[in-house]
Structure formats: C-alpha cells, structure tokens
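Possible regression after last week's pipeline update?

I re-ran a chain I had predicted before the update to compare outputs. Posting the input and the new output here so someone can diff against the archived version. Not blocking, just want to make sure nothing changed silently.
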Amino acid sequence: MRQPPRNQQPPPIKQFPQPQKPQRPEQPKRKIRTELFFLGALIIGAIYLVGYLSTHTFGDSVGQVRIEQGYMSAPPVFSGVIVRDEAVYGSSAANMIFHVENHTRVRRGHAVASMQGGGSATSESPGVVSFHTDGFETLLTPSNLESVARSMIDGQSHAAAHAAAFKVVRSHDWYVASYIPRDYMPSAPANTAITIFVAQPDGLLPLDAMIYRLIDRGAYFYVVFQTNLETLRFIDQRHISFQFQRNPEPGLRVPSSAVVERSAFPVPADFVTGDYYGTLTVLREGSSSRVAVAGWWASGGATFYILADGGNFRVGDVLVHEGELSTLDTIEVMLGVFVANRGHTAFRTITMPENFDADSDYIILSPLANPNIRLFDWIIADASAVYNRLLLN
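New output (post-update):
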C-alpha cells in the first residue's frame, strides 16, 4: 500500500454549520400592560360574581325576600246627594197635558203643559224639563250648600209629600254633597280639579268635577263637588254612590315579619362623617377619637338618624362638629324594613296604611307614601334576626 509523504498534511475536515436556535422576539410593553389590565378586570369580575351569587342565589339561606307588587283593598264607596237649581210647577201630573217631551230644553215663557180644567203651566226661566220630582227641589238648593244635613245625604231623611207635576232645571252647574271620613279624603284644597267615579247600572262613570266646598267636621270632611258635565244623565237622580278610583290601587307587598320598630337620635347630617371604607363616625364631646355609628339619612339628606338601640349613645350625649354642638335629647321611634340590595342591610323607614290588618301575613304599602323602598328591593324577611351592627349605609 502506498504511504503518503511524511511532510504532507492530512486534508482538513469539512465543517458543517450548526443550526441556530430561533431568537424569541421581545414583547412590546403595550401588550404586557393590556394583559395585566384584562387580568385585573377578570379578578374584579370574579369578585363581583361571587358577591352577587352569595347575595341573590343563596338569599334564602339568610332570609331575604323581594318586595312584590300587591293591591290595596277595594276603593271605599261614599254616598252623595245631588243639588241643583230647580223650579217645580203644577199640582198634579194627572190633570195636565204636556206639550213637550221629557228632558226638553225650554225657553223662558214657554208653555210646558196645560190643565184639563183650563190654564197652563209656563216656564218662568229657561232650562231643561224633567218629569221626575222627589220633594227635595226646595230643600236642596245651591243657596244652602253650607248646611246640607248628613241624614239627607245618607238617604235617611225623606222629603214631605208633594204634588208637583214637573220641574225645570235652570242651570248646567250641579253639585254633589257628601260626608267623607278624613282618612279617605284626598289631600286637595278647595277649587282643585278631581275625578270621581259614580256608580251606574252599566258600571262606573268617571266624572270630572271641582272641589267647591271642603269643611272640616272633626272625623269627617263635608265636601261639595261642582260640575257642569253629564247634566241630562243625572237629571232624574238624587242620591248617588261614588268612589275616588276605579280599580284597587297597586302597592308594595311586604311580609309583616319584615317590619320592625327602631329608635334613633336625629342629628344634623354634618355631624356624621364617612371614611373611604364607608364607615360612619361622629365625634363625642370629651372624646379624643371618633365613634362609629349606624343609622340612616332622612329629610333629603339634611338629617341623620343615629340608631339608639346599640347602647353606644345615651340621652344627653353631646356631639361636636367644627366647633358646633348637638345634644342628643330626642329619641324618635320609627317603623321600617331592612333593605339588603348590596349584600349588607340598611334600615329604611316606612309609612303604614291607616287600616292595615294586624293579623295578616303581608302588608300592602302605598308607593307614594313610602319613597324609601321600591318594587323588587331585597329585604330581610325576619327583621328580628338583624343585629344592630349590620346596619350599614
């Protein structure tokens, strides 16, 4: 075998390039901030979801119920007597021959009827003829509206026997006099427009009227309504029944067990301060640190009611605010419910209806008289289970 010369170098070994690892491009800072933002939003959303589920999904475990819509009792019905400007004519309808039809409009001097033995009955003033007479035409007149007896309104007093053949209603204006218990009379002064619903054979008729007289008679109001509508429809009627609304009024249906009584000290709202965490505190005279309070605002935020049931305050305690003093010298007792819409309880005052049934499981509250609570609010079903330390706002 042939040997290579000793001084000859062996051929170099061929080198192949090594594969390079791909370099990861540097992420922009903006993308990192976006990821952190969405991560934070996800955490906040998760916290909110857990709170919502614990408040609503598991609401039954803490005795929460929602305020539902209910209906107040059927509207009360009142009696009224109609008063008109009327003139009666004739002595006996059997002895008269009428020349006009019932409910005919006649002018002054118009011959309405003639007597069989001679003579005629002539209208002394213009108006509408009605063949219905009841004897009240001279007893109930617009001139004596101030003194209509209640016995006449209730139908207990009857007019004396009469022999009038017909009457002429001389004005479009007519009146309804009534005695209404003060708890049911709408809070409206005289000369206020109002609608009453009058019972008729075919249902309730809405009648637009005006409060002409409103006189306080103790437990009752003597009320006179004035109108110039539906004159012909009521021309042959004297006693009527009416109400102030057509249907039962919708209300807020609240369990009776949710209503609780609480005592509180009213103080000017400026004396109460809230911190970042929502804790409410006041400064008591002679104290170097503020004291946490529980309660609620009222009077449009001008007054704060400090709960008096917790034992932290007594009558005679003095609060301090920027050099001004407020003495806790008044305790007010209020009825209310505990609203729990946001996972904690807050006391809200309510106004009870005048004629509620104390033995009923539910109470129907008027929305107008109870602006502190609303339909579908979550409230504590058993208010006796709520501790004062849970009173938060």
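Follow-up from reviewer: compared with the archived run. The radius of gyration is 41 Å. Marking as no regression found.
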